[in-house]
């Protein structure tokens, strides 16, 4: 009887953990897509402003505006974006230890076709998620 009770307790707890992970992924993906919306609309200044302090300290606004304009303008409009992978980590090179989620998206653009976008989000002290790093290949 004890074994059965422990097994049921373990199953219930694991379902809660999976539900929590699912909710975190939803929040992170939503934050990433909100940030991407600014970039997709050419609102590069706003995308920098919406980014984490970590990103702002690493990348001055003028550098970001120059970089993202050169990266995104030749690609044309974004036509589709699909989440490919998601990973959680406590440490990322160049950043202090913390809570991070790295998302990779397959994205298609009108002029340059398929690309892989990688966005790293950092958890803030307010328990929200903000963009900390971005790369496109």
Secondary-structure topology with pairs:
Blueprint: H1 2-40, H2 44-50, H3 53-58, H4 61-72, E1 78-89, E2 100-109, E3 113-123, E4 129-136
Antiparallel strand pairs: 1-2, 2-3, 3-4
Give an account of the 3D structure.
This protein is α+β, with helices and mostly antiparallel strands. Helix content is 47%, strand content 30%. It has helices spanning 2-40, 44-50, 53-58, 61-72; strands at 78-89, 100-109, 113-123, 129-136. Strands 1-2-3-4 form a 4-stranded antiparallel β-sheet. The longest helix is centred in the first third of the chain and has 39 residues, at 2-40. The model is unreliable at 1-19 (pLDDT under 50).
Chain oligomer state: single chain
Helix content: 40-55%
Amino- and carboxy-terminal Cα gap = 56 Å
Order of helices and strands: HHHHEEEE
Q: Could you tell me the strand content as a percent range?
A: 25-35%
Question: What coarse outline follows from CA principal-axis ratios?
Answer: globular
In order across it, which strands form the biggest sheet? 1-2-3-4
- The secondary structure category is alpha+beta
The pLDDT mean sits at: 87
Instruction: Note the main sheet.
Output: 4 strands, antiparallel
**Count of runs of 4 or more consecutive helical residues:** 4
Low-confidence stretches: 1-19
How many beta-strand elements?
Answer: 4
* Rg of Cα set: 18 Å
